[in-house]
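pasting input
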Amino acid sequence: MSSLPITREQILRVAELSRIALTEEEIEQYARELTHFVDMLSVLDTIDKDGVPPTVTLTFDPIAQRDDKLEPSLPRDEALAMGPVTSDGGFAVPKILGGEG
Amino acid sequence: MSAPRDLIEALESLEAGTLTASELVDDALGRIEAHDGEIGALLALDAEGARERARTIDEKRKSGETLGRLAGIPFTLKDNFVTKGLPTTAASKMLEGYRAPFSATLAEKLEAEGAILLGKANLDEFAMGSSTERSAAHPTRNPWDRSRVPGGSSGGSAAAVAAGYGYFSVGSDTGGSLRQPAAFCGLNTLKPTVGVFSRYGLIQLAPSLDQPGPLTRSVRDLQLLTEVMRGHDPLDSWSSKRELAPARDIQGLRVGILKPALERVEHEPIRDAHDAVLETLRAHGAEIVEIEIPHANIALPTYHAIVAAECSSGMARYDGVRYGKRVSKDELFEMMEATRAQGFGEEVKRRILFGAYLLMEENVERFVQGARRARTLIRRDFDAAFERCDLFVTPTTATPAFELDNRGDDPLAMYLSDYFTLPASLAGMPAVSTPMGVDADGLPLGIQLVGAPFTEATLLRVAAAIEEKHGILDRLPALNGGIG
Amino acid sequence: MTRYEPVIGLEVHAQLLTETKLFCGCSVAYGAEPNTQLCPTCLGLPGSVPRLNRRAVELAIRVGLALGCEIHRDTAFSRKHYFYPDLASNYQNSQFEPPVIGRGELCIEVDGVERRIGITRAHLEEDAAKNIHGAGGGLYTVVDYNRGGQPLLEIVSEPDLRSAEEAELYLRKLREILIFAGVNDGNLEEGSFRCDANVSIRPVGQEKFGTRVELKNINSFRFVRRAIEFEIARQEAVLASGGALVQETRTWNENVGQTISMREKESAQDYRYFESPELPRIEIDDEMIERARAQLPELPDAIRARFIEELGLTPYDAGVLTSHPGIARYFDAVASGMKADAKLGKRIANFIQSEVLRDTQIAGLDAKFPVTPEALIELLSMVEARTINLNLAKQVFHEMVASGKSAAAIVEEKGLGGGVDEAALEAEVLKVIEKNPSQVEQYRGGKAAVFGFFVGQVMRATRGQADPQLVQALLRKHLDG
Ligand SMILES: [Mg+2]
Ligand SMILES: [Zn+2]
């Protein structure tokens, strides 16, 4: 069983959603490989999954919840020390024009 | 000094006073100095810090202070565990120079028990791969045969232990990333039941599958480390408070085998070794029963759909804003796109892109929810199997370690090397890999033992029985001329 | 000319009153220095693990009960993906289908008529961080992650609102309920109660919705009203001039008094929702619901009804005394402490409205206000026992506020209380009548206004301590009798 080939446009769309700039070569390569990948996955369409609930997380005990208690935060210097660019006590990014708050 | 064969022996020598922690550390550092230029198991080394901690422990021991259960034992940590003291890169350019402001619970726990961290071990970038060739830094070579890979993604950890850089390493397993390198490097490992070892500080690849675990030379080492590493961690919301089930006698144990899966193995020595193991278990009074995991044939697509989706989502955090690499650009999204284009390697980008495709509105039900439903079918297969047996065995891998650059041109072929390890990952079951001899080329072979949740102790007892008969500890490069 | 009908739906983001964030132990206190309330989890650091704050779930259940909504017993967190620096992981942990809280409705009163506004859903999610634009000499946008990860409940209404006024009434009502339920502080300026509005218009009689505009950044009730009114007028003008509306996001700019289009997104979003592979499902059992019900305080509509029926208040007074939970609790404490019936209730309400609320900021009533309900009970009990009269009580009250002393202490200190019992007062009355025979004659001759003179004389003689009503009664008895 073979799906429709993934197009250049589809790869560009996925790259935009993923925020990864691709070279022309990569676009071609990933389009080809994604087509194969989807082919491999299409086996899953053939098995009967009606009424089968999804397994999303996998634990044998309930996942713990936390009491609403304060815990120490990172010292700001330590947090900002990781930042590639910092300014005015925060993590700086190129100016966002008319950005949402 | 004559090097102890395993961790337990090293501890005995330390306690007897015939060896010091400093000697153990110096021995390990000497091997690293001599061989790691070629093996490439490590990404970061803390020689001075290790020597310092060894001296402290030796002094404490001399003055009769109470010491931790691993006092003086050098070890390494896969570089996808964050550490405050050493750089953490996950073998990615994205985290070059990154200094984590906290340490993984397991790192702290082991150091609190007196284990001495030598350095951080190589891996496939962000644990995506099965050969450690996809490290952004350099590939790791197998100490048994340097033309071959150590397996992956915990390949640096496995190579380090096999080469004698300390007595154990802690790595992680998502679909076989501990078991396959253990098999390729002649080591023992445990991928535990979800919740037995803390995941806090383990950089995630796919959180619903990732599990930490130790790589050791002997089964008894593995038993000790399991005991030391387990326990509830309030910082990991998945951490279990349960005790492990007590170990059962092999006499009367029902051991399952998967006939159809075995037929896929073309490497004859693996089939032979597997049969020899069954003989040994029968001799111990185990009953061999044939079982089925009917949905094992869809484990591969199920696994890769889930990993791609979770990975695509989880890797979104690396964007050049808060930490790690940034490629400077005037516009925000251009900055992110350039940073991610240059920071990630080919395989990481592949999984992120593929995962994004699967997660798109029109695809998510078919691929991601579909795979999650398939996962349920696989879990049910395991539940049914454990009605018929107490544990089951399979070869850990279908081949011994393969040569470097062997699969480079076909990423999907490399995905296939996880055939035997994926189902237990999808079902969340504990699994041990232990050596079962070597093939004609002298390459180690591994056997996998898979049990029901929290039956680690029984798996380890059975592994010990296999080791007694089929173990290859004395052939380990760390203990003979094979290295150098 | 076509007449248009506005169609408005509101999305409210209400910050839940927890101490810590939704998935980590960082503080949610407002106003801290930027980037001082963050940790590996809310900064999305590699290796961090989220841990759900169970309090947030409890508060969400409480909201469901307060709004009479369906509560879904088994829901999950989903990741909503989009790249933006205010999301530390470039996804938001939110809920998709189903949300923890399902359908319900909220009643508002518009011009005396009840209107039921549908609530579509409410879901738990984490807040985004704050982008501070124009930092570093205008070169950068700087991100402050303190707010990132704070627990929000997003409450979505049906598009049932038909005017800016209705929208405002709905918001005020919702805010009041959340405040009384103890789940939100209702602070619009600090952003703990935020509103986005979806506004469209359609020809009257048409069923199909028009093109919808999303209004963001409307952070006061006044702005809500003005922004929606402006938007309705703008849309009508566009259609009237033969233009077409575009689906877009606009923001209210108070300086120019207009809504302004925000930069168009490069292309449509695809949030790639999928259920979180690491967070717990939100499983709610009967016990949790019963516990939440037990913790749910009385809500303003019920309080007002009780004040009116049991404590003799007018609807207006009941409204004033429920303008803040602190005031309602204060009045309730005093009334129940004095076992008030309808008449006494009314007197207490008058005193609180005219004196207490004059003396204090509404919000100050809870914490630091020096006159506790118990202290006020002591004072008002003296009035009821006629130990002091109301005028004196007012003076004593202001003294209590200023000095923090008790009513008894002040009355004692100033020698105010206890001086005038009825017998003594009657003697004073007789004395005044005796001393002023000509005025008595005028009064008895039909000059009723002279009565005031007698009252004044008696009050002066008793240094204001007498109960004016009793004084009047006694004067009538002896002058008229
Ligand atoms: Mg929202
Ligand atoms: Zn935090």
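fyi Residues 221-240 of chain C form the longest helix (20 residues).
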